[in-house]
């Protein structure tokens, strides 16, 4: 992969991490305006219910980087159709690859919303969600999308997989400012006794900006923070690894891409830097760890990941077992697949609530805006949407945690509904 393309991946991974810090337990939401029109209905009873999935499948980040949620959602709908669909009506899935561009995204929105007349979008995963305002104006519920940008904290009728407390009045967050909690840092401080953390970034704007946010959060939780910045064109990861070893870092956070993470881990192994946790994000919560980190066995077994959904390897849980059984034909498994599966389940529950009135955009949207926390049969931490006029100063937030072990794969660390903390909410700009 070229340096230019890895720069895009770095920016995306950093943004995912930033938004991920805001995930956790949520508050209930008030209803939207009940006077709105009923919207576009599906066709006569017995005909398929049409949904759309927009994915940046061929984005500059590289093939397969964003396809997990789509694959998980499609697997859910395939199983649902095999069991008779919704009241005998099958789900017809229309997919669209926006190519990772704003122009392509607008074209996908036009095709699915205006031409195909989908009832809802599901598991949207777009590098540039340029068509988000158009989806909102059309009052099409967008259910369970990945918050790669700020769209789900900006527009009504858009319901990302992690929820939002923002007014969603056309501006991101509160007057352009978003807020995220420090629960991840609190977890490692309380549960793992960590006191010193290293933050590794490139000397590149997106990477450096995210590293500054992580540093702020760590310092707010009382950590000693060691910052390591490497050259984007010719990164000397060995020097960074040697310094974080010298400084006695317990944790390593990063604002770098997957390739850089693998190189950093190799350098840590080479210099003998042992840490409590090398912390990564939900996008890297995959079964490909042995291949991605094949040259760093010690660091590989210090990988930890945090998120807001149940570990996709937690097969003791019934809902996870069903997901894994339905996706056993896939070459790899990931947390994003599980979250796509949960998004499809969310739509299905919304559509089932419309049995009496008919499955329309407005009916599905009323279910989404009802204020009831949603967990997808325990796959998600409770997700709600609420339009708070002011951002909360503190919030009780929960976190799902797992660590990699070569013999077991991703092993859950405690119950995600119990890893909960009252933490400050820090401001940042999208």
Mean pLDDT metric: 90
Using the coordinates above, name the CATH class of the largest domain. Alpha Beta
Structural class: alpha/beta
Tally of alpha and pi helices: 13
Keywords: Signal
Domain Leucine-binding protein: 48-405
InterPro entries: Leu-bd, Peripla_BP_I
Region (Disordered): 28-48
In short:
By secondary structure, this protein is of the alpha/beta class. Helices cover 34% and strands 19% of the residues.
Structural account:
The chain is of the alpha/beta class and 430 residues long. The protein folds into two domains: 31-162 and 320-368, Rossmann fold, CATH 3.40.50; 182-307 and 398-428, Rossmann fold. The chain contains 13 helices and 15 strands. The chain has a seven-stranded mixed sheet. Helix 2 packs across helix 12 (335-352) and helix 7 (237-246) crosses helix 8 (258-271). It is globular and about 65 Å long. It starts with a helix and ends with a strand. Residues 1-45 have low confidence and may be disordered. Residues 28-48 are annotated as: Disordered. Keywords: Signal. Belongs to the leucine-binding protein family.
List the helices and strands and how they pair.
Layout: H1 3-20, E1 49-55, H2 68-82, E2 91-97, H3 102-115, E3 120-122, H4 132-137, E4 142-145, E5 158-160, E6 178-181, H5 183-192, E7 196-202, H6 205-220, E8 224-230, H7 237-246, E9 251-255, H8 258-271, E10 277-280, H9 289-292, H10 297-300, E11 303-307, H11 318-326, H12 335-352, H13 361-368, E12 394-398, E13 400-405, E14 409-412, E15 420-428
Parallel strand pairs: 1-2, 1-3, 3-4, 4-5, 7-8, 7-9, 9-10, 10-11
Antiparallel strand pairs: 6-15, 11-13, 12-15, 13-14
Helix pairs in contact: 1-6, 2-12, 7-8
């Amino acid at each position: 992969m070229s340096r230019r393309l890895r720069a895009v991946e770095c920016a995306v991974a950093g943004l995912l991490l930033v938004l991920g810090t805001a995930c956790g337990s949520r508050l209930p939401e008030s209803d939207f305006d009940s006077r709105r029109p009923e919207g576009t209905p599906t066709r006569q009873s017995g005909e398929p219910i049409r949904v759309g999935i927009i994915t940046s499948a061929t984005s500059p980040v590289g093939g397969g980087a964003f396809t997990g949620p789509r694959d998980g959602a499609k697997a859910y709908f395939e199983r649902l159709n095999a069991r008779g669909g919704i009241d005998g009506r099958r789900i017809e899935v229309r997919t669209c690859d926006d190519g990772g561009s704003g122009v392509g995204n607008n074209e996908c929105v036009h095709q699915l919303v205006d031409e195909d007349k989908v009832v809802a979008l599901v598991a949207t995963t777009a590098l540039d969600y340029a068509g988000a305002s158009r989806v909102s104006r059309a009052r099409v519920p967008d259910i369970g999308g990945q918050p790669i940008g700020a769209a789900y904290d900006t527009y009504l009728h858009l319901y990302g997989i992690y929820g939002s407390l923002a007014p969603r009045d056309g501006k991101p967050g509160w007057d352009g400012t978003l807020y995220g909690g420090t629960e991840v840092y609190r977890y490692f401080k309380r549960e793992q006794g960590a006191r010193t953390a290293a933050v590794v970034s490139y000397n590149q704007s997106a990477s450096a900006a995210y590293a500054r946010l992580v540093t702020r959060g760590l310092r707010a939780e009382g950590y000693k923070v060691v910052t390591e910045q490497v050259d984007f064109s010719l990164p000397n990861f060995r020097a960074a690894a040697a310094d974080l070893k010298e400084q006695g870092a317990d944790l390593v956070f990063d604002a770098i891409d997957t390739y850089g993470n693998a190189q950093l881990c190799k350098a840590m192994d080479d210099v003998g830097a042992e840490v409590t946790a090398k912390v990564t994000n939900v996008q890297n919560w995959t079964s490909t760890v042995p291949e991605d980190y094949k040259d760093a066995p010690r660091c590989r077994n210090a990988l930890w990941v945090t998120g807001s959904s149940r570990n996709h390897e937690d097969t003791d849980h019934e809902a996870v077992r069903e997901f894994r059984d339905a996706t056993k034909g896939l070459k790899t498994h990931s947390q994003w697949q599980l979250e796509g599966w949960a998004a499809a389940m969310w739509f299905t529950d919304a559509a089932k609530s419309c049995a009496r009135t008919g499955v329309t955009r407005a009916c599905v949207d009323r279910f989404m805006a009802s204020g009831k926390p949603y967990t997808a049969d325990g796959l998600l931490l409770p997700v709600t949407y609420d339009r708070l006029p002011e951002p909360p100063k503190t919030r009780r937030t929960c976190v799902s945690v797992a660590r990699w072990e070569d013999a077991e794969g991703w092993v859950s660390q405690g119950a995600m509904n119990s890893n909960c903390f009252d933490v400050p909410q820090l401001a940042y700009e999208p």
